[in-house]
Model the fold of this input.
Amino acid sequence: MVSCNSQRDIHIPTASQSQNDYIREWLRHKEDLLRILLEMEAAPSPRNCTKCGKDGVYRCTDCMHQPLFCTDCCRILHEAHPFHRIQQWTGEFFEDSALHMTGFQLYLGHNGAPCPSASPDIDEVPLHLRPPANSKYLTIIDVTGVHFVRVQPCQCLDADSYHRQLFQAKLCASTFEKPSTAFTFAVLDDFLRENLECGTSGMNYYSKLRRVTSNVFPHLVPNRYRELLRLARQWRVLKLLKWNGFQDETERSSPGDLALFCAACPQPGINVDPDVDLDELVWKYTRTVVMDGNFKAEHMHEKRPDDQVWLMDGRGFMVAHPPYQEYLQATPHITEKSACHNHRAISQANVSRGKLSATGIGATACARHGCFYPHSVVDFQKGERQLNMDYSLSNALGYNMTGIKNVLCFYDINCSYMKNLRKRVNNSPFLHIPSSLQIVPGIGIWHVHGHKQECYARYAPLFLRGSGWVDGEIIETLWSILNIVSASTRGMSSPHRQELLDFQMNDSNFMKMIRIVDSLSRKLKAARASVAMARDAFTKLDEAVSSENCQVWSIQEESALGGRVRDVSVMDIFEIQLKKAPTVRAVELELLEAPSQRGTRQGAASWITRGLGIEESEITLAITRKDSSKYPSETKRLAMARRADRLAVDRSRFIADSQIYLAPLHQGTDADDYSSGMTDVPHHMSAGDDVVSGEEDSEGSMDEAADAVPLKMTKIAPLPLPSNFGIERCRAAGADELVEMELKLRIGQANDALHGLRIALADKAVAFRGVVQQATSYSMRTRAWQMVNSIDSSVRQQAAIYRRCQEAMIALGADTDTLTRFQQLHKSHMAVHTAAFSQNAHDHRSSNLPWFWCMDIPRTTSSKNWLTEFYRIHWLRAKAVKDRWEEEEDLLVSEFHWTMNFFKFRAKKWNKKCVSFKAAGLHGAACYAARQKAVYDRLAEQGASKWLNMSPEILPLNQ
Done:
């Protein structure tokens, strides 16, 4: 063997070289290293066992140089390494195998030697040892720690360079000229896994390796932390290029081409046949997206922002840096005041932190399966501004959307965000959303309850045609995955942070993809059961409603769903339409807007409203405590204790503020002298007794639950309100205006309580008719009565609040008209026959409803209209539930088809690459492509098998 000149092409690095200088040097070798990585996928030629020279079929990925073995040698040489992983040659590629396939046996006893009493079936062959000689030392970092190894490179004239020889031996050198440190592929893979799954930072991981090397003196182990960070960046990029079939940089790159997207979302040309008429079922071929911001992914200002090396800018999930910065500089931020509640995304839109270059990130994901959209994740410079989310949405809606004409978009503040979206897009040369693309706004089911009441019917997923059964909140679960590494990215350079977040999001999408079949099958089974229940519930309600009303309500529903894109207010038909009496909020607003009279302190109306709210909360808490089981759980007791503690604080502050508004009344008055008695609140009031009675109560009645506990009262300490001092003392102290204020607020509070009472009684009656009486088993009856008892608790709460209001009205000297309108609430008033709640019942016209059922209705309107309105709302919402579950079942069946098509598409794509690589003589790349094709073939086979195991009631997969 002829020695080669080891000093050729030597480049002596200077001490001033930075991390980026090393990465720039690596960029020149990137294609070469990727080619080596792919060549290692192929079998050597000739394919002989490295030990005996026979036909080699196994290679060990954990052994140095991945040696090829015959079956016997592989078994014998791994007697001391029983946990190594091996691969078997299939004729096209190496497939994962296991040592037991070679006949390997693990001997127990006799110190691991074969038992002398048994007949040995394997010849004992001593291990072949090759100690290094005439080699220089190299610091090698492996999962087993830091090692000092003497290495002897090949000295032939035609030998590869030293760093190439190391890379072929699965050692990644930290530098290219005279490397002194190398990391094994195994340790780089292990670090990426630790970072993905556990959020382990580079500092913590290398600290662990130092302790693995020497637990007593870890500080004496060489520090290669900076090299680990640099090589991990390079390794991530090589992995992504390899996973996506990029052989070299001559292939044209595009935004998001290194990212994996959802397998189950409709993508024409990929998992949807391009010849399919997408206009036939527009709702089925709808993209469902969700947007949100994450303020955990902060980023500090960089020391050298101009000296950066971007390895995959814009090719993952984060948007390309230069175009995004250009867009931000050219787009002014316009603050839009929300007509809804003051949401955090709006109120903190201009929040800036001096030490942060990014206060968080915003992203778009598919709302049904939780996969991030490629090239759609943006940085926030101040807060969650609309211009940031516009850029994210615009990029997301441009990804594989050919032929898609309808999008359901969920966002926490869509009631404000969507108003001027088209205007902002049309005014920006950087944004593009086709005008033919119809965007239907929605708000996640958890966030919509924090909006105004009308936002529920306008934006809740329940009322969005084509949404199926989704909550619109799945992106919140994705943040928890991303937050694993968010803390470690805070101080990274911008390119390093982008690469790490891209890798984390790609892994999240990958895990979704390999588990999508199991997820869809579980959802489909649940959907089929829920469809039957929803249809049954709607049918029972539909039978209780006249056919004329059904026809009118169906027309209303269709008109609203068809016109919501033009005017979202048409969805208000899903809310009660009857005019209500003034609420306590309306009265408070009227008092605040009215000019204050001389002698009245500012804020008196709000102070009295606070007092009424505290009273309501104390009454509700008292009834909740009494309705709890005899031995409530520790969690429930803690929740009630916290509520009581907050109420005690609110009460103390209210009493302290009373010195401002009722100072004359406090002179010489103790807290116990506010009134002659305490406020009465029922322990277990009989307000809900006899809510439902009649001949239909064949198997128990509502009376059983209400009469089980006798009427008892508890006392709540009074608050310093005018009603508790009495009208005479208030007048003597010159507090007449406060008396008038509280009387008006009490009327509004009474209206609220009666409205809630009516809804609770009607809900209870319908639940009894449709759930309790229809229950056919013990478990169903138990759940049904739990539902009834829960509603009954609400009945008692509203009745108790009203009784307190009526008592306060008397104490405040209400006139005869007011007391005639707000009558005393008796047990007999709470009895409502089931017939009154059934429009088709025979005695419906002859049944008499108590006085409070027609209070909020104009005198020209029949008192029965309230019940008709109640049934209209229940009918519309029950139909919406049925429709959404039917859509969910249809969508899940289609998503099964689309998922199988996606796997087949990817398999065909890799097969084409395999053929082209073979033709080009790239045997390693061809073997890897064949392996990837096999992966997607197996995923498709798994899906087909899962489909066949489903109930035969579902259509075959090939239809």
Notes: The radius of gyration is 37 Å. The longest strand covers residues 287-294.
